[in-house]
Each structure stands twice: as C-alpha cells, then as structure tokens.
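Memo to structure team: turn this sequence into structure tokens by end of day. - J.P.
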Amino acid sequence: MITEKTKKLLMNKMTILKDNDKNDLCLVGPVNLPVQLDGEVVIFQWYTWMPLEGIPAEKEMILESIATLDLAQHQQSSVLVYGDFENANEAFIRMHSICHTGDIFGSKRCDCGFQLRQSMKMIVEKGSGALFYLANHEGRGIGLLSKSFAYILQQEGYDTVEANHALGFPDDTRSYEEAIRVLKGLRTRPVTLITNNPRKIEALKAHGLMIHDHIPLWGDISEYNEFYLATKVEKAGHIKKGELIIAN
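Reply from structure team:
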C-alpha cells in the first residue's frame, strides 16, 4: 500500500497531458540522471511516459494501479533533457528509435548506437536539448522479433526495405504523435532536429512540431553497414553525407 506521504511525493512528479482526440498521457519526471559520456559525468533530467489506455487520468488512481499493470511487458518511452530546455532560445532534439542490437550490444550492422551517443554529446555541447528514446520504434516500428526475421533476410541479400516488405510490413510504420505531445509539454519554442531523415522532418511538422532547422548526423560507417546506409539514402530518401535540406 502506498502511503499518503509517498503519494504526495510522487504526484508532484507527475503531469497529465490531455488531448480531446487522443488517450491522455502520464508524464513522470524529472529525475536526476548522471550519465557517463566520454569520460565525463553529465547530469540529465530524465522523464518517461505512458498512454492512459483504460486507466483514469487521475494521479492517485494511476499510482494505486501501477503494481497491477504489468508494465515490464509493455515498454515505455522516455526522454533525456539537458539544460534550460523550456526557456533556451535554441535547443537540439533527437527523436531516436530504439535499436536493441545497436544501442545495447554495439552492433555494426547499423549506425544507431553511434547516433545515440553522438546526439547526446551534441545536445550537451549546445547547452540545451532533449533526446527522445522511442520504445515502440524497433526496426522502424515492426518490433524486435520481426526485426530478427528481417536480419535473417538481409543476410541472404535483401536490403532493409526489401526485408520489411517481404515480411508484410511497410517501409516505415513509426508514429511520433506521443513524443511530440510530450515535447510540447516541455517546450513551446522551435527546435533544431538532429536527423538524416527528411521523412521524419515532414512527419514531425505534420504533427505540429515547430522545427527551426535540422542537423544531419553521419559517422561510424564501416564494411558492415555500408549497404544498409546506402539503402536508406536510395530508398528511404535519407540526406546524403554533406547534403542539407531546408526544414521550414
């Protein structure tokens, strides 16, 4: 049983983000998160969120129900915030799709792990920003098990787009709607987006995100991921290294 003192402490760290047309979101944070980043400890502010599907949008009732929601079976997304994100004139953001193999194991089949760490460093160097870590984006939205099937096909010569199509998926099923709602709850000013993907820029703009500019992010190119990266440029329209696009 959660005591009244504990409830008060935790409810002060909860924000209910409401939308008449969507499920309400419960945003929890900030939590001080010391992160080891290239030999230096950097303090980020960490938030996480979940949609309130079938759960009353009342803080006390959410706390009373969390022990029965089996949240470990339904991974939640989160965001690392650095600096005075709400008020800074300029801020970098990265909408980072979870990559179990690249982010955790350091797989060289993609450049995701590099982009994750490099984005964090860029945000710190900028002095203000946020890295959104989107838990339902594995394999561009097909899930971890499906991604393993896609990898098997890629080992047989399929490219990443062909593998997704062979499994019955579109090229990209990701949604940024929840992340943008959280972003708007944290900051109302325009942002600079760290991405190589113009489709991501257009998707975020379509959901009402004010993008001031974008910064491409290339690196960690090797014999293991050259074909993968080339496919993203040729078939998914990613920005070529050294190329810029206008995000207004």
